[in-house]
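Board notes (copied after class):
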Amino acid sequence: MTTQPIIESGMTFGPYPESQCFHIEASNCYAAIQRHVRMAEFLLLRTNKNKTQTLWIVEAKSSTPRPENESKFDDFIAGIQEKLINAFSLGWASCLRRHPDAEKELPDAYKKINLSQTDVKFILVIKDHHEAWLAPVNDALRVALRSTVKCWGFAPTSVAVLNDTLAQRYGLILPEQGHAALNQTDP
């Protein structure tokens, strides 16, 4: 069984196997706390060929401010950082059953997750963004999330900014026709 596709920022994510996807932005856990709490779109639990689980925290945007417009760009990065950290925090708290709705909502795979052995990837997908424009956004987001990545002991490569073409290659968004290919390779 698969989830329904998630349509965000003009892109169609999924569908994914039901046990792998937690649409956290549409969850009751989030609804209960959403006032003044910004949230990323969804969590995607993937297992690579080495059987290592990675929790992908995904945020989607249709555009970004130019890095030259420092004030707007810094605000944009801070907003993305906030959403990704909040989604990570609520996802982990849900796995730990810190919220009453978690038991009913969490896919079974999330209830069995070994939090000490699971990697995390913070993913920002930007629609129609040129590949050459991804690096400054990726660098800024990596700096913004550096303390979170260090404190939690995640890999230095735990932050990735993709455009819709790259996201399609990694099986995050729906190709022109058909279903998302579940490519387990990390960005």
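Comment from the instructor: The first helix runs from residue 28 to 33. The chain has one domain: 6-169.
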